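Hmm, how's this folded?
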Amino acid sequence: MSAEATNPEARPEALPELRRRGRTRLDLRRLGRAALLGPTPRDRLPDAIGHVAEAHRAHHPDADLSLLRRAYLLAETSHRGQMRKSGEPYITHPLAVTLILAELGAETTTLTASLLHDTVEDTDVTLDQVREEFGDEVCFIVDGVTKVEKIDYGAAAEPETFRKMLVATGNDVRVMSIKLADRLHNMRTLGVMRPEKQARIAKVTRDVLIPLAERLGVQALKTELEDLVFAILHPEEYEHTRALIAAHAGERDPLPAIADSVRAVLRDAGIAAEVVVRPRHFVSVHRISLKRGELRGSDFGRLLVLVGENADCYAVLGELHTCFTPVISEFKDFIASPKFNLYQSLHTAFATPEGYVAEVIVRTRQMHRVAEAGVVALGNPYTSPPSAEPIAASDCDEERVDPTRPGWLSRLLDWQQSAPDPDTFWDVLRSELAQDREITVFRADGGTLGLPAGASCIDAAYAQYGEAAHGCIGARVNGRLTSLSSRLSDGDTVQLLLSHDASSGPTADWLDHARTPAARIAVSSWLEAHPDGARPADAAPRAPLSVIGLRSGGGNAVADLPDATVRLAGCCTPVPPDAVEGFVIRGGVVTVHRVHCASVAQMRAVGRTPVAVHWRATADCRVTLLAESFGRPHLLADLTEAIAREGVEVVSATVEPPVEQRVRHSYTLQLPDATGLPALMRAMRDVPGVYDVSRA
């Protein structure tokens, strides 16, 4: 099923032309309403399983259909006599849900559980019966869906509803696949309910289920749910968009001709590819109209190019950018950098001689399956090797390892356990689902962390260390010291610095920079438990501790002015063989700066004439170093001892008062040889508690 070739609107008769442009395929909406929901005698209902079998065999030619037929017979028998609010036999609902999943390529176990997903809740069938007849896997999934369905869907109960749904999803992603298909079919038939109930269900679908469908990569379900919600919650905008599409249906569409041009280009290049025009769905047309204003013919669809191998994708891209005029701002490479929901494709656009802009999606056929169906297309993630023991009945609720579980889902499962109440869970869930991109950062030990885009070092700290991150006082990003509020980018390497002081803890401003639910919940909980903060305030600020040596002056710098007094600038602390310049200041003193020092530009800006400066042949030099460290007893003595062991003389030293358990030291040092500076800095970094040493 195509996520964009199908336009699941409230009135399907409005877009016959758009439907004719896509590839021939089963129309799930038509089958869901007509073939499955149409009023037919009960003795003909078993024929409906043929649609499911046909769709299933298209993806799994060797599938054993006997399990599906047995599941259907049990479902039809147990639901016999039950009716939906629309007046159709109830069995039409599990059949429609199963057909949706079959068209997406779900495996036999998922389809079997889908046929039975309402039997345990609404009939006399028990879980033991399901386990005995269909096995532990089907039992596990049916039990997970049943737990979700048993929850009250009243307005006040929604947060806890989706909290439990999330837990069930985490144990088996197929539970959510069935739930999404179940919601899609219910949304298709929502017209029999009161308007206020339609609006409430549509809002929950918009806030949680559509983002979950996006996160699971099931674009085919997501786009249809978006259109159905759009029609209910924004009827005026929906009608305007429907009118735009209807008007376009009567005009000449430039995309088929553009597709022919692309086919010719790829054929001449010897690239085997399928080029398809994909009409946009309603919400997509609405968004593009807001972005571009007046729409042209090429704005109502995109071109999809399907190839066999990854390398062919880039070959297609090269031909398109060579033979047409590319719109570079529209290029995105989701093959080299897949999205968080398994999505991979190349996106580009080009301008035609007629002035149209055609958007193009390039992907392999396997990428297309995953893009449309997400985790549903990945088959059974829990297939055990032959030697593995079967799942015991008592283990039905145990957590299982899911190789297809995206990183964001694992994070949600972790933090939902610590959410203090359903309302907090609901707020942070919607915030997390609103994130539409994920980044990967590398830890200092070589591991990786998956975080939402916009995450800070605070989020990385709690993702790596949990509650131990309360003692985080800083971080290095790509080797450079930075604040905890710094935002991380995809591919950054982050090293988190933890204090060993048990009284360390976060401050309220951490909440301004925390993006992940885990970090926000942990920080909020700590602040509630420590209303007075982690550290008592000092009675009065302490002055810096200074240790002044005996030497001063310009070291071995010499100015080209007779009898001039030379002084090395403290702002940049030049040492041989730095390129330097001098400037005369008050009293005739020549201050020496590195040529790239900001003070040099300032001196030149006010008209100061530089004085030539050179280094004496002697190798000794003077330099100022800054040391950042954790506060601890005897730190100053240990640093001074490390400096002395390197044969370096301390000219002066300043120790600032501790701030959040961090101490800043400033040393002006006289080195006997400038080449010993790197070894000195390494020796200072090796002192326990010191995490950074740099030149001033």
